[in-house]
């Protein structure tokens, strides 16, 4: 039964208010919340509004304040805390709440999830059993779960932004997957890809990293979705599930004479190029340029990259046009002195070519 805050507060005598600070576990007398430690883009503080009894016959009413400490607007938040032995949730207001495995999870409702930077909202809970106050943790989507650096050595890497894209690989190339910690391990359909390694993902709390190798011409589909502990509580929370899919086309490496070869150098900065599928693009730049990045993945596929900063050798990168589309091949200069304790004022020079690939 969902009780109103007013009806719960009149169920017993009001004791002196106590504030429990999220994660710091500091008890502060009085009704003014103390400063909470910032975790996951938000803080949660607790005020005990009333307590009665002890042990199994005890109970309390608490008010949580959730504040967005990120510089970005949040659209949803989650507050979790461990329940004491024998403690249970009786009712709540201004939240969707559940408990599983001795952990309570409260999420926003449809009307109080959006919090601009610095904004806050409150929700209340009536607890039965031992009167130890909650010590909550808080997270929101203004500071999403960390995504680690992609797997080293991958020829092409896909991330959350590549959802619903089609990526082309040559047989023998490797595909890296780098997703946030709330994604389940990816699954691959078809026989064109074979798994090489995987780590992290839900429920480990670590970023999801995976490497797959293209082993035979054909198609494959990589899929995963987000998950969260509160989705398995009773009742489940209202956090949406995010689906992620990338379609993979694996082709044989074309012969070297399959198409024309186009070489671009420093004066070609900002140039618009047109290639056909099978053409080779060669980027030839000075040794102080970083290896280029290709956005989006799959239109031109890296063949080999040598030199560039910090090797001291001229940068030469070859790409094969693999699929119709538009792509930017971009890089930037770097200098060792920029990474010293007192960086030098060396300016960085950006370089990019805009490539359109047709059949």
TrEMBL record:
This protein's source sits in the domain of life called Bacteria
Provide this UniProt record's keywords sorted from A to Z: Signal
Gene Ontology molecular function: hydrolase activity, hydrolyzing O-glycosyl compounds; polysaccharide binding
Indicate yes or no for the key word Signal: yes
Q: Does the keyword Signal apply?
A: yes
Q: Which Gene3D superfamilies match?
A: 2.60.40.290
- Where the record annotates domain CBM2, the positions are 35-148
Q: What is this protein called?
A: Cellulose binding domain-containing protein
What are the recorded Gene Ontology BP terms? Answer: carbohydrate metabolic process
Which PROSITE patterns has this protein been placed in?
CBM2, TAT
User: Where are the residues of the annotated region Disordered?
Assistant: 128-156
Source organism of this protein record? Micromonospora matsumotoense
Q: Where is the composition biased (Low complexity)?
A: 142-154
Q: Where is the signal peptide?
A: 1-36
A Pfam family annotated for this UniProt entry:
CBM_2
